[in-house]
Amino acid sequence: MEIEYVGKEKEAVVAAVKGRVDAVTAPEFEKQFSRWIKEGNTCFLVGFEQLDYISSAGLRSILVIAKKLKGQSGRIVLYGLKDVVREVFKISGFDTIIPICGSFEEALEQFQASPPGA
Amino acid sequence: MPHPSSGTLTLPSNLENLGAMIRFIADQARLHGLDPKPCHEIELACDEILTNIMNYAYPESRGEISVRCGGDRRVFRVRISDSGIPFNPLKTRKPHLAGSIEERQIGGLGIFLARHLVDDIQYQRKKNRNVLTLYKKKGKPNKP
To answer: Which of A66, A111, A117, B84 has its CB 3.0 to 4.6 Å from that of A73, i.e. a possible disulfide?
Structure first.
């Protein structure tokens, strides 16, 4: 797994996740976001276009991050999920609690339309 | 065409071996002719079961996990066994899949996902071992 910092857009950290998030790599995934949150970031637009695989360990990490952000009126929006990854979000019902968009543009639009804390 | 013979892999129950075991299962699934989508689904189902064993089966000792792949014309089969504490994952409760971020609980999803991603799954306690068998149906065979 690799997490790439893409930049900042309207106060949100834009990042791209590549490879596999499983029980081995999920702690590293969680740690990177915790670091960003500690630095004062509360909004994230995260590209999953190159994420090939996610297991429940990865979902658990996303839930931990989402819970932290909720407490700070922040949010995490995901975009560009591959079909196999989207299926995991659907089966687990995570698509009802984490905003999922098709593209970066769509994610940015959704982020601007309903700012965090609103 | 003869069917690929069954393959077995036994490794210490440790998260550092998760990748090797998953690669083995994915390779076997492909050898057995599974298409990419069912291949990904059985891979993920086994990942969840293996992760669970690696995290909980041997709380006070070291142990091993054996994975054996096989099947026939219609189905691909993965048998995962360990000699850890007796545990039937099919008796665990289904997690709550609705509710807000605050209401959702962390954990409990893995076994639910595994059950959802395969066509059948069976547990046996045999000779002091937990034996879990997962079945994934093959689609129509690909034309060469």
So the answer is: A117
CB contact under 8 A, A66 and B40: no
| Mean pLDDT of all residues belonging to chain A | 94
Residues of A with CB under 8 A from a CB of B: 22-24, 53, 55-57, 59-60, 63-64, 66-67, 70, 83-84, 88, 91-93, 96-97
Give residue-wise pLDDT tens across range B5-57: 579 999 999 999 999 999 999 999 999 999 999 999 999 999 999 999 999 99
**pLDDT tens digits, one per residue of A10-20:** 899 999 999 99
Beta-carbon separation of B16 and A66 below 8 A: no
According to CATH, the topology of domain A2-112 is Transcription Regulator spoIIAA (3.30.750)
DSSP-derived 3-state class of residue A74: coil
The amino acid at B101: I
Question: How open is the CA angle A59-A64-A70, to the nearest 5 degrees?
Answer: 120
Q: Are A15 and A3 in contact (CB under 8 A)?
A: yes
Domain ranges of chain A: 2-112
Quick one: fold of B7-137? Heat Shock Protein 90 (3.30.565)
